[in-house]
Amino acid sequence: MNIKFCLSLLGGLVFLSSCSKQAQSNTTGMNYNDPKHGGFQVIDNYQPKTPPGMVFIQGGKITIGQNLEVLANKNNNQKRTITTSSFFMDEYEITNINWREYVSWLSVVYHNTPEVVDVARPDSTVWRGELVFNEPYVRYYHSHAAYGHYPVVGVSWNQANDYCAWRTDRINEMELVKAGVIKMTNFDAIRKCSAKAIIEAELNAGNILSGVQKDSIRLAMQDSINRTYVFSMQKYLLMKSYNPELGRRPQLNAYGDTIKTSLSHGLIFPEVRLPTEAEWEYAAYGMLPNEEGFYAENKAYPWAGQQLRNPSKQIRGEMQANYVRGRGDLIEHVESLSDRGTITAPVYAFMPNDYGLYNMAGNVNEWVDDVYRETSSWEVEEYNPYRGNVVLAPSRDSMDYTIDEYGRLAYDIESDYRDFNDGDQKSSFDREDWKKRETDTLMLTRYKKKDPLFMLSTDVNNNSRVYKGGSWRDRAYWLNPATRRYLDASKSANDIGFRCAMTKIGESKPIERK
């Protein structure tokens, strides 16, 4: 195949591996990547890439679920054998530096709508308590350089998902920039556009605009920024009218029409997301074979053996995770500080598990994607088990797809399976909502009369999300990957953080066929 033709056809996608090994269709005999035969493009030797900061987790079979005999705790994770597909997961928990980068980017791009930025800020007040002196953490934990590599906390499940969506777009934006498909976002233009528009409006009007008029211009300019400057993967793939300020190099198909990079070119990463509960538990155990080729089933912790202290000769006796050993015992008074922190510790503290993942037990609990139900282990599928499916469809007006306040595609809910077959008709019943509506005469009457529907209702609903892993303020029991708890998706705590995951596209291992 002509190399120059291959490169020109892909519009500057400078990666030679994209040129197809298979030059001809096995069903029609027509040439691939040939304008004279229709110009159908085929990338036949795709090689998956590891996303920045992530490690590859080979999917497979594992027995997960409760493996400790503790009668005083809930039996909410029945032991069963499942299979997961391969995926990628962050080596470390998301840090304060990672989160500050996110907020900084938002502050530049959405400077006209500071309320959008405020939604992304972590809640520093999670460190406060009625009978504790934690004000230094309130002031400094999220902002001081000393805590840069500590896990971000005070972040809700909703905020974590917003971060995943933002990271998806940034990873793919950089991939397309490096391939020469688009230019880097013009941040200087974004900073100046609103000020320039206000100056021009004042010159045209011949006087200084009022605050209301300036705000109106800023909002109009922010909408323009969202549509023309903010790169969004889904917007790039789907919107016909999306093109203006990105400076995309023209790509031509066989008929001379301008085209975009598509999924079939292999440049674009899948969505960054929170791991499912099954993926998280699978990854936490680090199921790799030992020297004899056997797998260590029924592990209590992410490391080998049942010991909480390290048995290795060089560091014998040091703790293997950041947790509470007993009442008031959050750190050991030894020279090495083997617990490495009275609160959280740096994300690279302690030894990683066999997959190379750090702090899959202790330090901070971690959000996962699943909706909590006590009986989920009885109901979900055997392959890629998951509760939380919500089918979304891009919103459209008469002309094109609609854009949300983040410059991304807006979505509508088509189907919601979060409480599917959960055995509880009251799963979507929100007891907290009743408490808020106590001024309602009927609700207040039922509440005072201890109405059974109210008194027996659960606080578990479709916004209850699972978190796992144990933390700096938990006892050893919670370090077991099988344990699970839940919190409302809008709430946060000083012992809950998260890490991201990504589905691996394609076969787990290449299969040679004759």
Number of strands: 14
Tertiary shape: globular
Query: In which order are the strands of the major sheet placed?
Result: 1-4-14-7
Order of helices and strands, N to C?
Answer: HEEEEHHHHHHHEEEHEHEEHHHEEEE
Distance between the termini: 23 Å
Instruction: Please give the largest β-sheet.
Output: 4 strands, antiparallel
Oligomer category: single chain
Beta-strand percent range: 5-15%
Mean pLDDT: 79
Structural class category: alpha+beta
Outline the low-pLDDT stretches: 1-21, 244-258
The number of distinct helices, counting runs of at least 4 residues, comes to 13
> Percent helix among the residues?
25-40%
Radius of gyration: 26 Å
Task: Outline the fold blueprint.
Elements: H1 3-9, E1 54-57, E2 60-64, E3 80-84, E4 87-90, H2 96-109, H3 114-120, H4 135-140, H5 157-178, H6 187-205, H7 211-228, H8 233-238, E5 251-252, E6 258-259, E7 272-273, H9 277-285, E8 365-371, H10 376-379, E9 390-394, E10 411-416, H11 431-436, H12 441-448, H13 452-455, E11 464-468, E12 485-488, E13 496-497, E14 501-503
Parallel strand pairs: 8-13
Antiparallel strand pairs: 1-4, 2-3, 4-14, 5-6, 7-14, 8-11, 9-10, 11-12
